[in-house]
Amino acid sequence: MGVDANIAVMRRFFDAMNAGDVATIIDSYAEDGRCVTMGGTLISGAFDKGQIAMAAGRIYEAFPEGVRFVIHAITAQDDRVAIEAESFARHVSGKDYNNKYHFLTRLRDGRIVEFKEYCDTEHITDVICGGARP
User: Where along the chain do its domains lie?
Assistant: First the structure.
């Protein structure tokens, strides 16, 4: 697939995340796809498609009003799409969650092979993990 098609795949993926469309989120990954959340938080690590499928819906349990991602910039080359984005949500704790991200994705045949998430891990620890550390 070309660069424009890969960008379109990632825009649809973020549309699905904004809509809470768990089935589309999971289907966006290749069978050997993985999600990598950088850092040393309780939710950091590398997750295969099966683990993504188990966790994807739980995100919306933590954020019952949903999570809205705003894409600020997209840069793409070959099989990679880099996305600068920001999230807006309210956690079940009542705390606002507003993080800033750089996502680096690799795609193959219209599916995500790797989705790397770089963001403010201290904000994750404070809001999502309630201050708990590994």
Answer: 3-128
